[in-house]
Amino acid sequence: MHVKKSLTEESVCIKVPKNHAETAIVQANKLRLIDHELEIKKDARFVYIPLLDKPSDTLLQKLKHAVPDLEISTDFFAHREKHHETLIELLDDKLPPHLIASLPHSADIIGDIAILEIPAELKPHEKTIGDAVLKTHKNVNTVLAKAGPVGGTYRLREFSVIAGEPKTATVHKENGCKFYVDVARAYFSPRLSHEHDRVARLVNEGETVVDLFAGVGPFAVEIAKKRENVKVYAVDVNPEAIELLKRNTRLNRVEGKVVPVLGDAREAVSRRLSGVADRVIMNLPEKAIEFVDVACKAIKPQGGTVHLYGFINAPDSMEGFLKRFEKLVEKCGRELSRTPTARYVRDTAPYERQVVLDAQIR
Description:
Blueprint: E1 8-17, H1 21-30, E2 41-42, E3 46-50, H2 57-66, E4 71-78, H3 87-91, H4 97-100, E5 108-110, E6 113-116, H5 126-136, E7 142-146, E8 159-164, E9 169-174, E10 177-182, H6 193-202, E11 208-211, H7 218-226, E12 231-236, H8 239-251, E13 258-262, H9 265-273, E14 279-282, H10 292-298, E15 304-313, H11 318-331, E16 341-349, E17 352-361
Parallel strand pairs: 6-7, 11-12, 11-14, 12-13, 14-15
Antiparallel strand pairs: 1-3, 1-4, 2-3, 5-6, 7-8, 9-10, 15-17, 16-17
Helix pairs in contact: 6-7, 9-10
């Protein structure tokens, strides 16, 4: 156990906007710059990451290559009251030194399942890594390694169990809701927790919402939990996701407020949801932009709100994404009542960002 010697200590640090903090932490960890005896802290806009020392020009260049808008600053940081062994510390004497830098520095935690991306050079050691994850995350009972990319109509990937219980199903808690999740049967990301909460808080009483790519229901269920008088049509083409969604409506006691709809989004809107929506959610970032016409058809004749998620890959820009969206809306005979609010959600890969547009359409 680490005994703290003082309340705060001044330290050189990385100052980075919140939506790029994860990338900055991963990169600074790879370069072994972070002072793990001090607490990372944040305010409304920025995250502050304490460093062991001011980075050299070479290291700073590497950091800014990954996160161009970070700054080097100084601030006061609290000492960690307890020192729990990190994954690197647990594996320091179990892996060849040249492989330590390749260790994954983050995991997706869904319920009691941890999901890792194991680099090829670490595959022979993945069971050792999985066992270490179980020791560093006391609430985790299963460790899965990604065994392929997300793909197919249902956005699924393959996993291999590398430690703990051999399972892919769990119950995940988020923003006061509980979700049955099976990561092998239906897509789910815990990294959008803030977006689920944000959008749910924007919904007004009395609204009808169409969630075009609902999955197991993180948007739909949370909206129904937060609002007394709403109707959410939750559409998904994956029958396994719809079955889990039905269980989640019962688990969270929102049956009737959430209406599961199995089928292709385009067909579902054409068949039964044309002109019903005050608000449309489009969380299929790989392809949502291709369904703008569907959202425009679902929105009531007098207009409504669209939340569209997408990916922007360098050298494309947010401005270009906005212009493409506006042209598609106009092609549908609709128009924007004001310039959409556009914001970055998170970094998803080198040179790739997930974004969301909040648009008022009339």
